[in-house]
């Protein structure tokens, strides 16, 4: 059975996104290529779960980077990796997706994800998409949580866990970076 890994940046006060729709909620992120390398190394992922807002932000940000002559090779590689992954997008508003390898769903998230876990393939990543993270966490469908704690007190924003049933986590790894970001890797206790 495939595993689902959640990856999100969070502020010190627990928000995964700001309320600024113009930046897709990413205006306080402290970007660090070392963090990106640590997160992506030794992971075998072929599917990405996104909500509609996160999908639009990713499409807006990552698709142009593939051909941007000013983008670093690392950023181009991440853009290519995301493009090649199957993107499973849950949205009631989106009617079409233009980014390659994207499948749109507007139905039962839990049922679709349970079926995804049973399909052949490698692990599944979910990024952003707080409402979906909350639903999948409540159903026990997320196996691992990767938090990139960003050295910012946001003050307000979108909370990652709101109205979620309590569950335990086991610490797998921590890693601090010069940028002030801290990677926390947890597995869900069984």
Automatic annotation (TrEMBL):
**Any GO BP annotation:** riboflavin biosynthetic process
Specify the Bacterial bifunctional deaminase-reductase C-terminal domain's residue ranges.
4-182
Q: Which Pfam families match?
A: RibD_C (PF01872)
User: Which GO terms label this protein's molecular function in UniProt?
Assistant: 5-amino-6-(5-phosphoribosylamino)uracil reductase activity
Q: Can you name this protein?
A: Dihydrofolate reductase
- The scientific name of the source species is Lederbergia citri
């Amino acid at each position: 059975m495939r595993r689902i890994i959640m990856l999100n940046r969070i502020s010190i006060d627990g928000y995964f996104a700001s309320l600024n729709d113009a930046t897709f909620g990413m205006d306080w992120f402290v970007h660090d290529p070392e963090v990106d390398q640590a997160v992506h190394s030794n992971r075998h992922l072929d599917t990405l779960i996104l909500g509609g807002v996160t999908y639009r932000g990713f499409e807006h940000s990552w698709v142009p980077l593939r051909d941007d002559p000013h983008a670093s090779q690392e950023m181009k590689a991440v853009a290519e990796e995301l493009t090649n992954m199957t993107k499973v997008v849950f949205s009631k508003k989106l009617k079409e997706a233009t980014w390659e390898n994207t499948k749109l769903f507007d139905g039962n998230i839990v049922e679709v994800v349970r079926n995804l876990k049973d399909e052949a393939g490698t692990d599944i990543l979910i990024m952003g998409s707080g409402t979906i993270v909350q639903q999948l966490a409540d159903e026990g469908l997320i196996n691992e949580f990767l938090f990139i704690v960003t050295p910012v007190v946001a003050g307000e924003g979108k909370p990652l866990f709101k109205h979620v049933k309590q569950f335990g986590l086991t610490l797998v790894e921590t890693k601090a970076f010069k940028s002030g970001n801290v990677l926390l890797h947890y597995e869900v206790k069984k």
